[in-house]
Amino acid sequence: AGTPLPPPQELTTVRVQDPRVQNEGSWNSYVDYKIFLHTNSKAFTAKTSCVRRRYREFVWLRRQLQKNAGLVPVPELPGKSTFFVGSTDEFIEKRRQGLQQFLEKVVQNVVLLSDSRLHLFLQSQLSVPDIEACVQGQGTQTVTEAILHYAMSNCGWVQEEEGRP
C-alpha cells in the first residue's frame, strides 16, 4: 500500500490592499483599506472574504485581542504618526504594509484566532459596536451567521477581482 498523503497544509493569505480616501475634502475624511482573506483553515467560517476597514478599527481590534489574549503578545500596529515627513501617499502605503504585517502575524496565532471579534472584523462588514453586540450574544445573529450572511451577500469582491486588467 502507498504511503498516506500528508494532510494538506493550512494556509491563510491575508492582504491589505486598495487604500481609499472616504469623504475626501471634508473634515471627517479617512482612509479605509480592503482586507482580502483566502484560506483553507478550519478556523475560518468563510474560505474567502473581502471587507473594508479603517485604521481606527484596527486599533480597536488590537486592544480587544490584547484583553483576551492574556500573556500572548499581540503584534504591533504601524504608528499613528501625526508628524509625518513625505507625501500622504507614502504614509498610506507604509501604513498599508504595517496593517498587512499585523494581520499576517495575528492569523498565524492560534490564541488570537480563537477570538470571534477577529473573525467578524475580517469576515463581516459589521461595525465595531455591532461586533461587540454579536460577540456578547446581543446581536440578531450568531458570529457564524453574521459571517455566512456577509459571505452570501457579498459577491462584490468577485467582480472586483475580475474587473482588474
UniProtKB/TrEMBL annotation:
SMART domains: PX. It is found in: Cytoplasm; Endomembrane system; Endosome. PANTHER family: PX DOMAIN-CONTAINING PROTEIN (PTHR46209), SORTING NEXIN-11 (PTHR46209:SF1). It is a peripheral membrane protein. Keywords: Cytoplasm, Endosome, Lipid-binding, Membrane, Protein transport, Transport. GO terms for cellular component: endosome. Gene3D superfamilies: Phox-like domain. One of its GO terms (biological process) is vesicle organization. Belongs to the sorting nexin family. This is SNX11 protein. InterPro entries: PX_dom, PX_dom_sf, SNX10/11. It comes from Mionectes macconnelli (McConnell's flycatcher). Residues 11-128 form the PX domain. Pfam families: PX. GO terms for molecular function: phosphatidylinositol phosphate binding.
